Amino acid sequence: MNALEIKNLHVTIDGQQILKDLSLTLPKGEVHAIMGPNGSGKSTLAKALVGHEDYIVDSGTATMDGKDIFDMEVNERSREGLFLAFQYPAEIPGVTIANFIRAALNARQPKGEDVDAVAYYKDLYSEMERLDIDRKFTSRSVNEGFSGGEKKRCEILQMSMLKPDYCILDETDSGLDIDALKIVADGVNHMRGKDRGILIITHYQRLLNYIVPDRVHIMWDGRIVKSGDKSLAFEVEERGYDWVKQEQTASV
Amino acid sequence: MQSMITVKSDSEFLSEAVFDHFLTRHSELPQWLVKLKQQNWVDYLALPAPSRKMETWRFANVKGLGVDTFRLAQPLAVEEGQSLIERSNRLKNTSGKLIFGNDDLLAEEELSEDLKAKGVIFEPLERAFAQHSEILEEFFMAQESALGSEKFAALHTALNRNGTLLFVPENVEIDLPLVSYHWAQGSESAVFPHTLVIAKDNSKVTFVDVYGAHEKDSSQLACGVSTLYAGPGAQVEYHYLQNWNEASLSFNQLTTIAQRDSNIRAFGLNIGSKHARNEGHTIIDGPGSNAELFSLTVAHKDQEIDQRTLQSHNAANARSNLLFKNALQDTSKTIFSGLIKVAEEAQQTDAYQTNRNLLLSPLAEANSLPGLEILANDVKCSHGAATGQIDDNELFYLLSRGISKPAAQILLVFAFFEEILEKMENEELAEFHRELIHQKLENN
């Protein structure tokens, strides 16, 4: 199946189980949102999928178009089409944005071949223009001294250059003012298409005004407890998360 | 053709007999030089071999430093020379080029008529000893070793026969760099490359020494000495690209003399040698002078790169800044031992010294011995050393974008080196450094 499929996932960090039997299917061509209160395990899901070593997968499966994600190295997952826009991306002093993205693209070329430099810069500049990032950023060190908004835009820039099959955006809206939010949303909307699945992790409904999701999932205590269409996001915005909690408690 | 009739005799080994043999073969040398060589040969034999008990050889693996098994390098076969000339082409935009193979001049690109007319001298020492004997009598080996390698300086003086004399007269500015390539060939060959740069008042010059081997795996000895004189107001930039093969033993002593208001920038790159010992003595003799001393090292396998430096401030209102960065892989080892010495009269000195090490393997060993000795009371001096590893978050971020671990390491080593690489204003030279670093990291 052409989808990112997560089944019965259990993940532990520092000896504490955070994801408890989480299942989710993100088909290609769709945009899903995961909403949930702090501590519900949203970011843990993102980190476990890309393979951060602190996140231990106890049981469950995750596949991309049928390929076992947990069987792959971190860099292999990326090359196979998985992308995480980090909530707090690392700063890398001394590595420029241009060299960083070029190295990532070269990693996708056949061994010994590099991307064409001229074509690369042409693409890079055009994506930067769309995201309203000054060209001077190409020679700046990755995320070093960037504002929160600049970091988020730089994540979206990487996403648009790498053209992954499945994108996970972890709290990409946090810390953005409304103008930056619109730019980021435009960037993501531009990436929407039948060959790509996008998973937006967010605490607030605000971003979903600009990126309208096909499905919304509510996460609670390490699992998806409620799924629906975009109206579910408005319901959360209006009623908070407590009603989900009450529903959950009632159903146990 | 000469190479056809060369017979490798026992007397070519660096034993007692070699020197007489050397002198008979080089009867053309001026008398002052013969005398100097004779004295140095005696000194070489008398001086003690390095021992770890000596402060200047602390931490060094002195067992690997024996030179008796090496012999004087033999002339190259024609086709070997030809292939080395072809390999001496990395820098395209130069004002002059000398190519040496086993201490013989293989080829040269002479100065322009314009520079010659201005009085610039750029000659191989084998000719300069005859044509510019008066300059060499004053400047050749005029500086004493200060950092422990007296014995190897004496050996160099006795057996050296070639290298570069670069003399830049007053007010002459040379925009494009001049370069000398020094190649070593043959098993157990010993070469003695020499560099002497004399930049007179208000002149400007960039000189590059490139050291390399004809073949990968034969053990060679390189025992070199370089001296740079920056006259009043002169601007001298020097690049030292050490890429001997990894079976080799190399010694290099660089002495830099900065006179009033001169500006010196030195960039060292250590790629090759099984065991390299570099000594850098910067002598601040004139007020208002400024010396910037940079070094990059990529060490891997069981390489040992041992660097000792001394910044001697003898004049007031001068500045020196040293930054040495080492990236270590596998079981490699580096030693940095640096001293800033400020004389009583050298008030208002600014002197800095920093050594940073990036350990890419848990088995690599970086030793750092920074030091200060300050007799003046109104100075700004600092020294620092730091050793660290690759940051896990940075590495994870790179991996998460599909970059392989080796490629991520290369990016992060360049990130670590960037602080020095970005200071090179000549793009072609900076690219040369990058290329050698890249090759080394890729082939690990």
Produce the secondary structure layout.
The complex is a heterodimer of chains A (252) and B (444).
Chain A: E1 3-13, E2 16-27, E3 31-35, H1 42-50, E4 55-64, E5 67-68, H2 74-79, E6 82-85, E7 92-96, H3 97-106, H4 117-130, E8 141-142, H5 148-162, E9 166-170, H6 178-191, E10 197-202, E11 215-220, E12 223-228, H7 231-239, H8 242-251
Parallel strand pairs in A: 3-10, 3-11, 6-9, 9-10
Antiparallel strand pairs in A: 1-2, 1-4, 4-5, 7-8, 11-12
Helix pairs in contact in A: 3-5, 5-6
Chain B: H1 2-5, H2 16-25, H3 31-46, E1 71-72, H4 78-86, E2 96-101, E3 104-109, H5 113-117, E4 121-124, H6 125-131, H7 133-139, H8 150-159, E5 163-168, E6 178-184, E7 189-191, E8 194-199, E9 204-213, E10 221-230, E11 235-243, E12 249-258, E13 263-270, E14 275-284, E15 290-299, E16 304-313, E17 319-328, E18 333-342, E19 350-359, E20 365-374, E21 380-389, H9 392-399, H10 405-421, H11 427-442
Parallel strand pairs in B: 1-7, 2-6, 5-8, 6-9, 7-10, 8-10, 9-11, 10-12, 11-13, 12-14, 13-15, 14-16, 15-17, 16-18, 17-19, 18-20, 19-21
Antiparallel strand pairs in B: 2-3, 4-5
Helix pairs in contact in B: 3-8, 9-10, 10-11
